[in-house]
Write a structure and sequence with these properties.
The complex is a heterotrimer. By secondary structure, chain A is of the alpha/beta class. Chain A is 40% helix and 17% strand. Chain A has one domain (3-150): Rossmann fold (3-Layer(aba) Sandwich). In chain A, α2 crosses α5 (119-150). Chain B has a domain at 325-558 and 597-635. Chain B is globular and about 85 Å long. Classes of the chains: A alpha/beta, B mainly alpha, C mainly alpha.
């Protein structure tokens, strides 16, 4: 196991939602589930984060915010769309201002349906995300190597 | 040889001053001042050669006409000051002038024939150090002022600001007159001579503060004059007392007398030193003096003139050691240091920060003098040197920055490192020199701490609090300079070569003294201390090695300017995801409008307010001074 | 103590400091009824950060943090070689200044306020640390750490007030509640991550390592109060650290006014009385 999978730091953003999934994310951090067992830390700062954990749907108002946060995360990074609203827009899908799920603006790596999503599912998603993170790092390194060899 | 050098140092600036005042041609100022400054610096460097033996040298310098000339000049000065004071309706100043002149003439007509000094001038290592400061730092500031004053008068003509009458010949004349008087202060052994030069510096300071001639300048000039004249009066009384009780008017004889016999004259002259060096409760005059053009603040009100005050008190250190008087003087210095440092925290005006920090550092030197042990004197002299160089540099930088930015508020200096890179870099050196290890002031503060712990650990407690405050206001200023809150362009043009030369030399000096501080102390300070006390102190070879390592590490820091960011990616600052604009330095607020980010320092006005702390400091020090007077009266 | 202990510090402190940090997280988790991360978690974190991209706002901001690390190492090396305690404190202050300047240079509102508070924290703790040095000098007659360690009795008996003042400011140095104003190891504080907000990747890893060095160095000062016996010293250092963790988990973050005021007042009263006591002893 690489270092990346031992210490996934998360930034959590709650979009247009009922806050149910938001609360479940907090539940995952609390003593009962304690994701810090796996080195997961909720940093609240894109510059420190490896995993962008998005709950809630995307609307016109939060689209630039989500993009900004994503762009301020250092590579390698993954995006988890947690909860049905983040995957597809969910119950808010038909609203006039809602664009839909996270994949409308970001390249989503892991989809986690559920309304609201259970903490076990969130932990599972993070573990999946960590695997993708390692793949992305390997890809980045290969790119770098091929760039060097071409030069 | 030595005597001629001293005559030259005193008379040469005087003649330069006369030439400038007589010539009055703008085009000729640089032609006169630059070569004259070069000569003066070279001549002061010759002082180093003189000090090689380390032995104090007495120089008779008997000229029958000098005393008469001095008396005539003092009479003329008094008349002029009296005229101005009456015109201004400042009765207190008029009163002081009249009393002082009356006392002086009364003494001369009654006792003048018997009051003669064996040696009028003298030179020892301490006065060589002072002479070097005046000769090198003072002259560099004079060089700077040529370009600065031209800029100032043209600037004022550009903007619709109140027009300052262009009186530059007089300005430069006074600067050189002042340098001459400062050399006189450093090398006089005859106390009447010392007093004469002392009064000239007071008058120079007065004339320079009112240079701009607006209401505030004139008011502050008289305020400064008032306290300096009060000190001058005490000085004169001290000399007269000394003559009446001990029949001498010579500094070296005074220092050689048993201290119990001369406590009163020493107390009076030290009082003069306290007023001159703007200690509490007199500090407000120095803050008011900041209305003068910046070179004046640099030269008179931080690097040299105020040093004359601490110089004379530090001279008395051996006599003050272990006495009640010494303890009270130390307390005045300590309170001044503490209050001055605290007030700096709440100040946004860069010149005011520099003024209060000057007051605080002078307080530290007075503290050393009052304690008077060999460690303390060692630290005190070092403080004088380091402070003169760094503070001179800081004032010059702030002056240039003010001309470029049109403001001297620290809050307006954001991104200075991009807008005025060279000035900002020198400002950083100056600031680092004031508080950061391994630079000068910190070395001295370290020595002061050790000196105090040995004599009175209770003082150390307050010293420590003061230096914690020092750390805070310098770092936040440094931080403001390097912080870049929006896109800036470089506007660093139009600063003339003379100004760059002066600032660059001072910056190099600041670094050089730190690097060469150990040999410097060994050549100039330790022999002096050994001559006085029989033994000296040092910080230890191991510590010096560590300091050298730290300094050489700092030498790598300019790499920050060369860093082109290999292996990093530039991203906008985190603004909770609300960044807008190309560089992301603006954000969308809750109402949808676009706002620029803006960062402001802590000033903690509620805790470190100028008015409140000043009141407290004045109250405390007035009590100490009253005790000094009471004790003096009992003796 | 000699140059070798200094060198040993340079190499061993990050290992030990990382373990201390891991221990801290484990114990804190237990105090909160959680299982907590593995003991080696801090090493995993740093290892990961070294593999990440380095995002900056201003290109030169990382240089300040590199200096911070170097100066912290120097500080500890002087301390553990038995050097002059005052010089150690000055070097430490200098390191802190560079840390704060890095925050300023990063030019973001969060790091700017974090840097402000960092300097404020330095201003708050400096009197207590300096007074402790003065007190040790008054008892042992030397500022050299080597001489202080060689003093036959535990200094705590003569310096109870100064120890109290020192313990009071420890949370500042360990960036723990109630004084974790500038930056915090806990998730989410009101300034995001305060002074380190704009640092990522390799630079953040260096800051983390610098903090490990800092831990060992600060615990080393605590050790001086009990230095007459090695085992007593080590046990008491551990006890101090445990107490610190309890305080961390039992208190909330205070405002800067409360931090500055309380740190200064405690140092002034407890430290001042202690110094007066020492003066009376000296006669």
């Amino acid at each position: 196991m690489g270092m990346l999978s031992r210490s996934p730091w998360v930034i959590h953003y709650d979009g247009s939602s009922c806050n149910g999934c938001d609360i479940e994310v907090l539940a995952a951090l609390m003593p009962r589930f304690d994701v810090e067992r796996f080195g997961v830390v909720n940093t609240g700062n894109p510059k420190h984060a490896d995993i962008f954990l998005l709950t809630g749907s995307i609307n016109e108002q939060n689209k630039p915010v989500v993009l900004n946060i994503y762009n301020q995360m250092p590579e390698p990074k993954v995006v988890l769309a947690v909860g049905i609203c983040a995957t597809s827009g969910g119950i808010f899908r038909e609203c006039y201002n809602v664009l839909g799920g996270a994949d409308k603006v970001l390249p989503v790596d892991v989809y986690v349906p559920g309304c609201s999503v259970r903490p076990e599912a969130i932990i599972d998603a993070v573990v999946k995300g960590v695997g993708i993170l390692e793949e992305k790092r390997a890809a980045l390194r290969n790119n770098l190597k091929s760039a060097v060899s071409q030069a | 040889m030595a005597s001629y050098l001293l005559y030259f140092l005193i008379l040469f600036p005087l003649s330069v001053a006369l030439i400038i005042v007589l010539v009055r041609k703008e085009a000729l100022f640089p032609v006169i001042i630059y070569p004259a400054s070069a000569v003066l610096i070279a001549a002061s460097c010759l002082l180093i050669g003189l000090s090689a033996g380390g032995k104090p040298m007495l120089i008779p310098a008997h000229f029958s006409w000098v005393e008469q000339a001095m008396l005539v000049i003092e009479g003329a000065m008094s008349a002029y000051l009296l005229f101005l004071a009456i015109k201004q309706r400042d009765w207190f100043v008029s009163f002081l002038v009249v009393v002082q002149a009356a006392l002086l003439f009364w003494f001369h007509f009654n006792f003048g024939h018997s009051a003669h000094a064996e040696a009028n001038l003298f030179i020892d290592l301490f006065s060589v150090v002072m002479g070097l400061i005046v000769g090198v730092v003072g002259t560099l500031i004079a060089v700077f002022s040529v370009g600065y004053m031209r800029d100032m008068h043209h600037h004022v003509a550009d903007h619709a600001a109140p027009v300052v009458p262009d009186n530059r010949p007089v300005f430069f004349g006074i600067i050189f007159l002042f340098l001459s008087a400062m050399f006189g202060v450093c090398f006089s052994n005859n106390l009447f001579w010392l007093f004469f030069f002392w009064e000239i510096t007071t008058v120079c300071s007065f004339l320079m503060i009112r240079y701009k001639r607006d209401t505030v300048s004139v008011k502050n000039a008289f305020w400064a004059l008032r306290w300096n004249l009060l000190g001058g009066l005490a000085f004169l009384l001290g000399i007269i007392f000394l003559f009446h009780t001990q029949h001498t008017i010579e500094l070296d004889k005074l220092l050689a007398l048993p201290k119990a016999l001369v406590m009163l004259p020493i107390a009076l002259i030290s009082f003069a030193g306290l007023t001159k060096s703007a200690q509490l409760p007199f500090s407000s005059w120095l803050v008011g003096a900041m209305v003068a053009p910046t070179p004046v603040s640099a030269l008179l009100h931080s690097s040299t003139m105020v040093k004359a005050g601490v110089y004379i008190v530090l001279r008395f250190a051996t006599s003050l050691e272990g006495t009640l008087l010494g303890m009270l003087i130390a307390l005045v210095g300590l309170v001044t240091f503490l209050i001055g440092s605290f007030i700096c925290i709440s100040q946004n005006d860069a010149k005011k920060v520099l003024a209060y920090s000057t007051i605080a550092n002078l307080g530290l030197i007075i503290l050393c003098a009052g304690i008077g042990t060999y460690e303390a004197v060692w630290a005190g002299i070092l403080l004088i040197v380091f402070h003169a160089v760094s503070k001179g540099l800081l004032f010059l930088c702030v002056g240039s920055i003010e001309h470029k930015l049109g403001s001297r508020q620290i809050e307006d200096m954001s991104g200075l490192i991009v807008r005025l890179p060279k000035l900002a870099f020198m400002l950083e050196i100056g600031i680092a020199g004031m508080f950061l290890a391994p630079f000068g002031m910190l070395i001295s503060k370290w020595a002061v701490l050790r000196a105090i712990v040995d004599s009175n650990p209770l003082f150390a407690i307050f010293l420590i609090y003061g230096s914690a405050a020092t750390l805070f206001f310098w770092v936040k200023w440094l931080g403001k300079i390097i912080n870049v809150e929006k896109v800036y362009t470089n506007i660093e043009t139009g600063i003339c070569r003379g100004q760059w030369l002066a600032m660059g030399s001072l910056a190099v000096l600041t670094l050089a003294i730190c690097a060469l501080f150990a040999p410097f102390a060994a050549i100039f300070i330790e022999p002096y201390i050994i001559a006085l006390y029989g033994h000296s102190m040092s910080l230890g070879a191991g510590n010096m090695a560590v300091m050298t390592i730290m300094l050489s590490m700092m030498a790598f820091f300019p790499l920050a300017f060369l860093d082109r960011g290999r292996g990093v990616k530039v991203a906008p600052p985190y603004l909770a995801g609300a960044n807008v604009g190309e560089l992301g330095q603006q954000f969308r607020d809750s109402l949808g409008g676009v706002k620029a980010m803006h960062m402001k320092n802590f000033y903690m006005e509620a805790y470190f307010s100028e008015a409140r702390l000043m009141r407290l400091g004045v109250l405390l020090t007035v009590v100490f001074l009253l005790v000094i007077i009471a004790v003096g009266g009992l003796q | 103590m000699n140059i070798f202990t200094g060198i040993a510090f340079v190499f061993l402190a990050p290992l030990l400091g990382g373990l201390v940090a891991g221990f801290d997280r484990k114990i804190s988790a237990r105090l909160q009824g959680r299982i907590g991360p593995p003991l080696f978690q801090p090493f995993y974190d740093v290892g990961k950060l070294l593999q990440k991209e380095n995002l900056v706002v201003r290109k030169s901001q990382r240089l300040y943090m590199e200096f911070f690390l170097v100066l912290i190492i120097l500080t500890g090396a002087i301390f553990f070689s038995g050097g002059d305690l005052l010089l150690v404190i000055f070097a430490f202050t200098m390191a802190g200044v560079f840390f704060a300047l890095g925050g300023y240079k990063a030019s973001s509102p969060y790091s700017f306020i974090g840097a402000q508070r960092e300097v404020l924290q330095m201003m708050s703790y400096e009197p207590a640390v300096m007074l402790a040095a003065v007190g040790m000098y008054m008892v042992t007659g030397s500022f050299q750490v080597a001489d202080i360690v060689a003093y036959p009795q535990p200094l705590i008996f003569k310096l109870p007030g100064l120890f109290l003042a020192f313990f009071f400011i420890l949370p500042i140095k360990f960036r723990k509640s109630p004084f974790d104003l500038a930056t915090s190891h806990h998730a989410h504080q009101e300034l995001v991550k305060g002074i380190t907000t704009e640092f990522s990747g390799r630079t953040l890893a260096l800051i983390e390592i610098a903090h490990w060095y800092e831990y060992i160095f600060v615990l080393g000062i605590g050790y001086l109060f009990f230095a007459s016996n090695v085992w007593l010293g080590l046990v008491m250092t551990l006890v101090i650290f445990e107490l610190l963790l309890v305080v961390d988990n039992a208190t909330a973050r205070v405002r800067w006014q409360a931090m500055l005021g309380s740190a200064w007042v405690v140092a002034l009263i407890a430290g001042g009385l202690n110094i007066i006591y020492l003066m009376l002893l000296r006669g």
